[in-house]
Design a protein that fits this description.
Layout: H1 3-17, E1 29-35, E2 40-44, H2 57-67, E3 73-80, H3 90-99, E4 104-108, E5 113-117, H4 118-121, H5 128-132
Parallel strand pairs: 3-4
Antiparallel strand pairs: 1-2, 1-3, 4-5
Length: 137
């Protein structure tokens, strides 16, 4: 991923955050997902009065991409309206690891940016390989 793609991804994530439905937390998050083919899918958090039904921006973007047949991802930018970058929750980390454990995760706040790989955010994560390890036994 080059610098132009990185900046475009961050801009798309910030723009997506503007569409967040966050009447309860007032914490808006946007995500922009880059496929290996160069397509970008965006998402925002969608809250619900029944809090467990809330969907994070990262999973919205990933589900949009998967619903369009995309499953190979290069990077995701996550932007929030706080000073510090926001890190993906555990469920989002698990979903990212399902499709792209080596994907770059660009976490953006108002004051700084942190970039890591999914495997750095979810070391020893559970993945599809665990479901097939015991097939020969």
């Amino acid at each position: 991923m080059n610098d132009e793609q990185r900046l475009g991804l961050v801009k798309a994530a910030r723009s997506a955050a503007l569409n967040a439905y966050a009447p309860y937390s007032r914490f808006r998050v946007g995500a922009a997902l880059l496929t290996v083919d160069g397509k970008v899918y965006t998402g925002c958090n969608v809250e619900n009065a029944s809090y467990p039904a809330t969907v994070c921006a990262e999973r919205v973007a990933i589900c949009k991409a998967v619903s369009e047949g995309e499953t190979r991802f290069e990077a995701i930018a996550i932007a929030c309206d706080s000073r510090r970058p926001c890190s993906p929750c555990g469920i989002c980390r698990q979903v990212m690891a399902e499709f792209a454990p080596d994907m770059r995760v660009i976490m953006v706040g108002e004051d700084s940016v942190i970039e890591q790989r999914v495997t750095d955010l979810l070391p020893y994560g559970f993945g599809p390989g665990y479901l097939t390890d015991n097939e020969d036994e």
